[in-house]
Amino acid sequence: MKTYTRYLTDDAATHSVGEKLAKLAQAPLRIYLSGPLGAGKTALVRAFLRALGVQGAVKSPSYALVEPYNFSNYSVYHFDFYRFFDQNEWEESGFRDYFEENAICLVEWPEKAGGLLPQADIEIHLSYHQHANPETTGRHIEVRALSPDGQYLVKQLNEQQ
Length: 161
Hints:
Layout: E1 3-8, H1 11-24, E2 29-34, H2 41-51, E3 66-70, E4 75-80, H3 88-93, E5 103-108, E6 122-130, E7 137-145, H4 148-159
Parallel strand pairs: 2-5, 2-6, 4-5
Antiparallel strand pairs: 1-7, 3-4, 6-7
Helix pairs in contact: 1-2
């Protein structure tokens, strides 16, 4: 399994990873993001969408559960399952249809849907990281490839150093 791991010093570093992923991404693609509240999942997705050309407000789908973005030959769906209380909500929502051939699906809190989601191409885990100096806090990112498409993306991320 290919991985990409980095220490992200600030929001700009998080945005940079999102932008790089967007430039490499092609539908169909499933990216699942996990980590504690405030670790940068939505910030990374916003940078991803901005790099694709989305202008105006990029809302977190915490209440709507999904925000769609349509482009000429594919769609991007940004999901946030934080408010799911039961994995059956995934089945009842009808979201399975969104994971189609011409879609890039970015899913925050995928664990809330249990094992019902289709297999991810890449999983991104963001966490807080504190150095010995208590004033120096950043984030740690780990991107794991789980499919051939995911392996390609992670390989490209690693080569862009």
